[in-house]
Amino acid sequence: MADTSAAASHGQPGDVTKRDFLKLVAGAGAAIGAAAMAWPLIDSMNPSKDVLAMSSVEVDLTPIAVGQGITLMWRGKPVFVRHRTEQEIKDAEAVQLGQLIDPQADDARVKPGEKQWIVLVGICTHLGCIPTGNKPTEMRGDWGGWFCPCHGSQYDTSGRVRHGPAPANLAVPPYAFESDTKIKIG
Fold first, then answer.
1. Which residues of 116-152 are buried (b: 16+ CB within 10 A; e: fewer)?
2. What does the pLDDT read at residue 10?
């Protein structure tokens, strides 16, 4: 009779041995350990709480009288919010697009039904200066909007560049009306 105990001690192909089990456990432990070490590094790349807090700003429009504007900070940039007069709206809508350096209709720069409010990033598109004109006592240029005293760029009441070296209109940040008297920027 043949001794089958010798064949059983070496195992047959396809049988699971202790060594295979130990390799599986060691591999799984290494993968879990690598993930546990990588997670804090990946998590540190998320924006901090102070950055998230600056990502959006709520603005109460109630104290802004017709013809006035305010300047606030959003993501480290000045933002102009102006309550436009009926005449400012008419002037902005009457402009021929062919007269503009960066043609854009007034309707594309304001929210539908809210033409009296214009919200703009207050950074000149030429060299990043901050234009004047958000306060009634400041120079507003020939078109009644904003004036960049550094190089003479002028913007109309829709924030469109009308004169000077600026190549583009003042940017319109993402914003939405939360109510008739409140907007959220960002």
1. bbbbbbbbbbbeebbbbbbeeeeebbebbbbbbeeee
2. 57
Name the CATH topology of 51-185: Rieske Iron-sulfur Protein (2.102.10)
Instruction: Provide the whole-model pTM.
Output: 0.69
| Catalytic residue list contains 83 | no
- The full set of domain ranges for the chain reads 12-43, 51-185
Instruction: Report which residue type is found at 89.
Output: I
Contact 135, 122 (CB under 8 A): no
Are 184 and 56 a contacting pair, CB within 8 Å? yes
Q: Which residue has the tokens 């305010």?
A: 70
Q: What is the pLDDT of residues 148-168, one digit of tens each?
A: 988 889 999 999 999 989 999
- Residue 162: half-sphere exposure toward Cβ, Cα within 13 Å: 18
